Amino acid sequence: MIDERQKLQGWSAAVIPALSKDLKNELPELKGFSERNLGRMLAFYREYQFTDYHLPQGVAKTTTEPNLPQPVAKLQIIDLLHSIPWGHHALLMEKIKDLHSRFWYMQQILENGWSRDTLGLMIKSDACERHGKAVTNFDLHLPAPQSELARQTLKDPYIFDFLTLTLPFEERELEVGLMKHLEKFLLELGQGFAFVGRQYHLTISDKDFYIDLLFYHLKLRCFIVIELKKGDFKPEYAGKMNFYCSAVDDLLRHQTDQPTIGLILCQTKDKILAEYALRDVHKPIGISEYELTRSLPDNLKSSLPSIEEIEAELSGGGDE
């Protein structure tokens, strides 16, 4: 009704302010009908009119009505919209303009039980853009359904901005920091990761080996070995990870488990070098980067004072 009246009467008719005032007078015991919230309701209605809506990738459309979803898909989308709390919808409409990305976040809210604050953090860290971006060889060593699910499980890069490490740092310091913030680490890894152990001990041919971090993934039904590396990715890391995955498969894997997956986390990687390194190894391995802080946009960097300017100001070099 608001949409139709605005189209007929124009914005100057002040439809929303008048309606908000009338609702407050007629139904003073009900909350949520402020001008701002009515504006959000109108935006919600306009965002999800199916006649103009383009489905996310992978959802089929009818051939007779190219702009409408198939009946089943349409019902699924409507059910998804109804399942998300209103505060989450308001944040998504404000922050995420691309509908494909918005629906991805909605699915993650339902699957992971994200609060509004957690959703805000995930949007801020570009979680949608990072999912499924790791360099992997999953297509070669995992069956089709498992390989795609595993690929979507990994990110690139991982953001560890909850750590307070000073440069230079050692790999062990990174490992200890992640364990101190295990809840935040698990949130960044994503749903399904169950922590098994740190410096997990394996005895092979009377020799001792220690895996940095060992997890079990409840959806993939497999162990995940994580090795933390400082600096650039090196091809020899893939060989060591292949060895660890083989050992876990032989010593820990249950006969009903899927093959163990390795994840190498390094500060930087050359994608071509990483792809070559994984080409002929026999175990499913992914390679991702990690960041301790997100880099600032160039336009923001230029507007910030330099370290020298800050030091001069603190030492009394400024006018005030």
Protein traits:
single chain, 320 residues, alpha/beta, Trna Endonuclease, Chain: A, domain 1, seven-stranded mixed β-sheet, 16 helices, elongated
How would you portray this structure in words?
The chain is α/β, with parallel strands linked by helices and 320 residues long. The protein folds into two domains: 2-125, no CATH class; 131-291, Trna Endonuclease, Chain: A, domain 1, CATH 3.40.1350.10. The chain has helices at residues 2-9, 15-26, 35-47, 71-83, 86-95, 99-112, 116-124, 127-130, 138-141, 144-153, 171-180, 182-189, 236-251, 271-279, 298-303, 307-314; strands spanning 135-136, 158-159, 193-204, 207-217, 222-228, 261-266, 285-291. Strands 1, 2, 3, 4, 5, 6 and 7 form a seven-stranded mixed beta sheet that branches. α13 (236-251) links the parallel β5 (222-228) and β6 (261-266). α5 (86-95) runs parallel beside α7. The protein starts with a helix and ends in a 6-residue tail after the last helix.
What is the CATH class name of the largest domain? Answer: Alpha Beta
Spatial shape: elongated
Distance between the termini: 57 Å
Query: How much beta, percentage-wise?
Result: 5-15%
Give the number of helices: 16
What is the domain total for the residues? 2
Identify the CATH architecture of the largest domain: 3-Layer(aba) Sandwich
Averaging pLDDT over every residue, what do you get? 85
Helix-strand sequence: HHHHHHHHEHHEHHEEEHEHEHH
Oligomerization: single chain
How many β strands by DSSP?
A: 7
The CATH topology of the largest domain is Trna Endonuclease, Chain: A, domain 1
Can you give the helix content as a percent range? Answer: 40-55%
